[in-house]
Every structure is written in structure tokens, then in C-alpha cells.
Amino acid sequence: MRRTTRMMRSAVAVAAAAVMTVTAGCSAGLGGPASSRAARDGVIRFTFAPDPIWDYMNETGIVDQWQRDTGYEVESSATWDEFGLFAGGHADIISTASFEVPGLEEQTERETTIIGRYNSERSRILVRDDDPAVTLADMKGKRLGVFTTVSGTLVWSALLKQMHDVNLADDYQIVVADIQNLSNLLARGEIDACICYPDLSARDLREGTVRPLYDGKSSAEVFAELDAPGHDGPMGNVFVARRDWVDGHPGEVSAFLDLWTRGLAEWQQHRDEMVERYPQHFAVDTPEDIAFMKDYVAQHDWVVDDVRFDKKWADDESSIFDLMRETGVIGDDVSDPKFLPAEGVQK
């Protein structure tokens, strides 16, 4: 879900400050439309962006076996517009960033619950390799490329305000561009820095035309270092469900988490195979870039070890909202999302 909401005050300011749009972002659905059937017992309507672990579990028969073992059925659809399908009532579970859940509730007018975690917010701040900047504070007035005014931009907005007392909207020329083009625009000199995903910057990182600031740390790693020691978030993707559906379907919730527990284990065991098997999910195609990405993910894995979480983890994850409120990224009236810790799920 990548939507600007009224509660995201500085994000709206960033959007207003954008000086150009290079290409339109990805919005077309992949993998066909979601089921139009109404919710029913024993069926989990799951909408997810195209994903290597989910593809692997489907193609290797893990999902089919899970359905036979549990008696539950998954009706899945792959789309970048998870938000729209959820808003339209065609999905019981979707994924989104944890810090975007309040906006999801506001725009859909649906109460939600975070039931599981998947991966940490992995964006990095990149500059050209020959740029002498040590931090983004050294680049005031320069062109900063972002792929959205929400998502990782929200987290970096709060972190940069905390670390350097800078404001993205006021202190930089914001360039909104397609997520897959940002690092290349940076390498070509059309922007001076970017908030980029490493898996969409593999060639430029491998060739050494761009480099990361903050010792290559992601926004999640910087947040953990400054605000939540030992934490693995904030999450770039959590599993979110309608609260009324969660309350009425504890068996489906638990079985879904079991399925993704298996998926995360498969990732740990077959990570290199998945990169080779689904290079499109990592924006790589040449043998050199595939090898680079396999090595990079091994060193900077953003996928969590366990889909379930406890109350302490939920409290630490909620602290990103404290930081965003303190730095003015969101309003004081924005409530934290609701979490369902592992001990609250029947097994």
C-alpha cells in the first residue's frame, strides 16, 4: 500500500515540493485479479505483491500440501495494488509497511490487526561514489530522489530530523521517480542522492558508481541503533487483516502464520536458489548481478526469522510512531496500529 493520507503531514509537504516526475510508478496488477467472492469460512483471501517466497511455495507444492493438511484454502492474487483490493473488500489479508497501517485504516474505514511480520524496511540512502558527503546533512539543497512520499521516505524523514534536524521538504529538492530507475538516475548525475532499495540498485552498487551513506545501514537498522536496540524493524511488510475477520477466524489466522513460518524457513534454506529462480523479483538478470545479489542478501538479509512476534516486539515496533510524532512526520492524533502477538493466536 503506497498512499498519501492526511495524517502524513510532512509526506504531503514532500509531495508538494517535488520538482519533477521521471516516470509513473508501478501500479498495474500482476498475476490476475483477486477473487470477487465474499469472505467465507475456511477460505483465506490473500493479496500480496509479487514475491519470490510465495512463488516458491506455490511452485514447489508447499501451498497445495498445506491446504490438504489443514483443510483451509488460500485464494491468492499478486498485485502491487494491495490497498485497493483490501479497500474493495476482496482481501482478508494483505501486506503493507507497519507504519502505513494507520493510513490504511483511515482511507478504507476498516479496523485492522497486524498478525505477522515479514521483512524490515530495507531502503538505503545512496550517493554517487565520487561524492564526498558523509551524511545527508552535507547535501542540503541537492536533488534527492524518492520513489514515494510514504513507505521508506516516512521513516527516513523522521530519522533525518532526529539525527541532523533537517526537513526533507524544506532542505532538499525532491525528485519523485520510478523505484527501479532511481539508482541509475543517480549514477547518471540526474539526481544527487536517493532513498533506494538495494535489490533495485544491484548493478550500480556492483559497478561502484553509487555508494550508501550511514555505513550501508537500512532505515530499519538506523532506527534500531538509535531508538530500539536489538529490534529488527520497522517493517517494510507486515501481514495485516481486517479485525473482524481475525476475531472470527482464529484457526485460519494460525494456519496462515504456520504457512508463512514454513515460507521463511524455505527462504533461509534456499535463498540463493530463489534469487536464481526469480531474478525478476530482485531486478537482476545478468550472471554478474545475480551473483552480487546473492552475496548482498546473505550479508544484509531483510527477511525476518519468524512470522510470529511477542508483545515486546510489538511495543518496539510501535515506537516508530513515537519518533514520527516527535519529529512531526505524523500528527499527534494518529494512533498506533493494533498488533496480535503470537501468544494471542490459537495453535
Automatic annotation (TrEMBL):
GO CC annotations, alphabetized: periplasmic space
Classification via InterPro entries: SsuA/THI5
Record carries keyword Amino-acid biosynthesis: no
Gene3D superfamilies cross-referenced by the UniProt entry: Periplasmic binding protein-like II (3.40.190.10)
Annotated ranges, domain SsuA/THI5-like: 117-273
Signal peptide start and end residues: 1-24
Major localisation: periplasm
Subcellular localization(s) per the UniProt record: Periplasm
UniProt keywords, alphabetically: Signal
PROSITE patterns: PROKAR_LIPOPROTEIN
Family to which the UniProt record says this protein belongs: Belongs to the bacterial solute-binding protein SsuA/TauA family.
Protein name: Nitrate ABC transporter substrate-binding protein
Native organism: Mycolicibacterium sediminis
